[in-house]
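Input for the complex:
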Amino acid sequence: MRLTLHIWRQKGPKEPGRMVHYEARNANPDMSFLEMLDVLNEELTLKGEDPVAFDSDCREGICGMCGFMINGVAHGPRRGTTVCQLHMRKFKDGDVLYIEPWRARAFPVIKDLAVNRTAFDRIIAAGGYISVPAGSAPDGNTILIPKPVAEQAMDAAACIGCGACVAACPNASAALFTGAKIAHLGLLPQGQPERDQRVLKMVAHSTLEQFGSCTNIGECEAVCPKEIKLEVIARMNRDFIKAS
Amino acid sequence: MSSVAIDSHVGRAARLYQAYIGKKFVMALTGVILFGYLVGHLLGNLQAFLGPERMDAYAAFLHSMPNVLWLVRALLLVSVVAHIVASIQLTALKRKARPQGYVKKEAIGSSYASRTMMWSGPIIAAFVVFHILDVTTGVTNTAQYRELHAYENLVYSFRRIPVSIAYIFAMVALSMHLYHGLWSMFQSVGISHPRYTPVIKRLAMWVAILLAAGFISIPISVMTGLMGTKL
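Predicted:
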């Protein structure tokens, strides 16, 4: 299949970038989106041009490393899927695709489609953990957690920190990410001792990193590859108001 | 002792407001107050269908307790100002958060109403200013304006077609604002439930539609001659 690609090219964080037009002639429906770009990059390298930089790691949709905008949608048109698990059979021969990096002040472009997401790590470092004495592992079932609660916590813990929520949000808010981390720990008994401090610190830090505010519109939920729900944001709001 | 307690309360409120969640909390609370007013105002207005005597008696009743009237007006003014100030601060935050936009951006998970709150809001605010000048103070009303003759004032006002059209337009904006705002306020204060939130969203939609329909029914009645024929 043949595709027309418009890809954001930017040499470095301080360089100006622009959309560059490419023709992908050797795409095949069984390739993942990243493999299609790999093929394009091989062609560019053979021609002596700079290949398109993009992040990826596991290519199994579980690590959170990959992600960019395809035609204005984070991770592309398939719901609940990262770009590495998005296959070219989702597209038609002759499609025109605009490929852009996540856009947020907190996510500066490193090169082309690769953005710096260490702001997320710093939000975690601000309070997204539990301080436990690092001894031997406790016996199984010494801390009882009802099954529905464990499931809810697990749903929130599914967040892979890819940044699609920020990218899709008109306010570039990190509310879904921060909310997922707060819900994940706040639902479990182990997370209770630091629950108030955690939410205060993580929310304050997300603003410090210049993420925007949440307007409850739901764009993040729609693009999240792990289908994390707006409910985690309500939980974060509730915890924050209580803790303030 | 008490001063320490007050300080800590003030400190807590300030800390809450500093965060965007606190600003959204204020928007939700003031939103509830303003929504409560809208319901009361609609019930008051619909008395126009019961005739001039009933409508004017209601206006006189409201003005018979000036203290309460001004207390309510002050509360509404404070709410409107707080609602607007918080929204402006949050918009400034949003602008800073994404200095460079997308070449192509699609909305796939949000309603048109939710994305245009910063359009519907200012439209409503501008309308409210005009509305007060028109039917409360009479500045922009017709020459026949007489204070406390609420029924006549509204009939004469709505006989001017552009005024009625502007009113209907503003009520559509109000309806859109409420469509998102009425459920969003629950989310902002932290109330969300997998079963009840979808119900709240549906209720918000119906309340938004019915409220606007109620308000719009009055200019429509005047323009079609159903109301105020004897004037």
